[in-house]
Amino acid sequence: MPTIECEGLTKRYGDVVGVDSLSFAVEEGEVFGFLGPNGAGKTTTIRTLLGLLSPTEGTARVLGAEVTDEGALIEAKRRIGYLPAHLGFDEGLTGERVLDHHAAIKGDERRGELLELFDPPLERAIREYSTGNERMLGIVQAFMHDPDLVIMDEPTSGLDPLKQERFHEFIRAERERGTTVFFSSHVLSEVRQVCDRVGILREGRLVALEDVDDLLSRGGKRVRVRLADPVSRAAFTIEGMVGVEPIADGFRFTYTGEYNALLRHLAEHDVIDVEIGEPPLEDVFMHYYGEVDAETAEEGAAGSVTELEGADA
Ligand SMILES: Nc1ncnc2c1ncn2[C@@H]1O[C@H](COP(=O)(O)OP(=O)(O)OP(=O)(O)O)[C@@H](O)[C@H]1O
């Protein structure tokens, strides 16, 4: 049984579509990243999964509980940790009281261990907290009852780079412990670092659902080459090169073809320098984020170089 399962999940706010016909499953032990531009429907999905919004159509189950079955969902939520985008803690309480309150409701298996990694000033009132402190308190709260599933809405927003890295390490360790993690993000590098799979949402629809490794391997390589002799872009471009841009003494492009073909091609030129870098995950994501329709994006997901090129333009 998948830990999260949506079938045709649709949420409308009057005439506004929040999410439209979402179908996907998150398996036990997976770390799943949910990406999409502003207004794509990430928060709507998360709030629906937690029973805070009711679906207009379709179904969703978390830990086997239908989200519309209040009794079953209350039971399931004992085993779920939730970190909302807007934390909404009671401003007058100290951090300690917030955690004590949570402990009384859901339990407290791991507070000490978590506070060693994320250390908000527990003795101070929430109104005195910085954004990052509040986020850290939220992380401790989401994990302290040792849940089987943790759902987080943009968990690293407001954390400084050091704390973000600590959070990523922590999530990797959680994965080893077998915790299922579902989180939304705008941060591509964090998804690449910690997720097994990613779903990309655009205008309420799921436009991609795949392994991060597949996404990366299909993304090609970023290449930058400097040449001793001038050559026109048209003459230099071969199959598999995407978004070829002139730079001083050469070109930069994404390469999705066979390595040998590229090396043979480069050997025909007088090469001063060549750099072959990271797969351009950002390009792939920008393709989904950009102003193309969802149908086109799906073709791009199947590996169409032309579509990726179109998105670069
Ligand atoms: N309470 C509401 N009433 C009306 N429309 C809403 C409401 N909440 C969300 N929406 C709309 O639903 C769509 C999806 O919004 P949602 O907040 O789920 O997106 P998101 O992907 O979480 O965005 P962000 O990255 O900006 O947080 C948007 O068009 C938004 O304006």
Describe the structure.
With 313 residues, this protein is of the alpha/beta class. It folds into 2 domains: 4-215, Rossmann fold (3-Layer(aba) Sandwich), CATH 3.40.50; 220-278, Alpha-Beta Plaits (2-Layer Sandwich). The chain has helices at residues 42-49, 70-77, 95-106, 111-117, 131-143, 161-177, 188-194, 212-218, 233-236, 259-267, 281-289, 294-301, 305-312; strands at residues 4-13, 16-26, 31-35, 57-62, 65-66, 80-83, 149-153, 180-185, 197-202, 205-211, 221-227, 241-247, 250-255, 271-277. The strands form 3 sheets. It has a 6-stranded mixed beta sheet, with helices on both faces. A 4-stranded antiparallel beta sheet has the order 2-1-4-5. The protein has a 4-stranded antiparallel beta sheet with strand order 12-13-11-14. Mean pLDDT is 88; it is low at 291-313. Bound molecules: adenosine-5'-triphosphate. Residues 13, 16, 18, 36, 38-44 line the site of adenosine-5'-triphosphate (ATP).
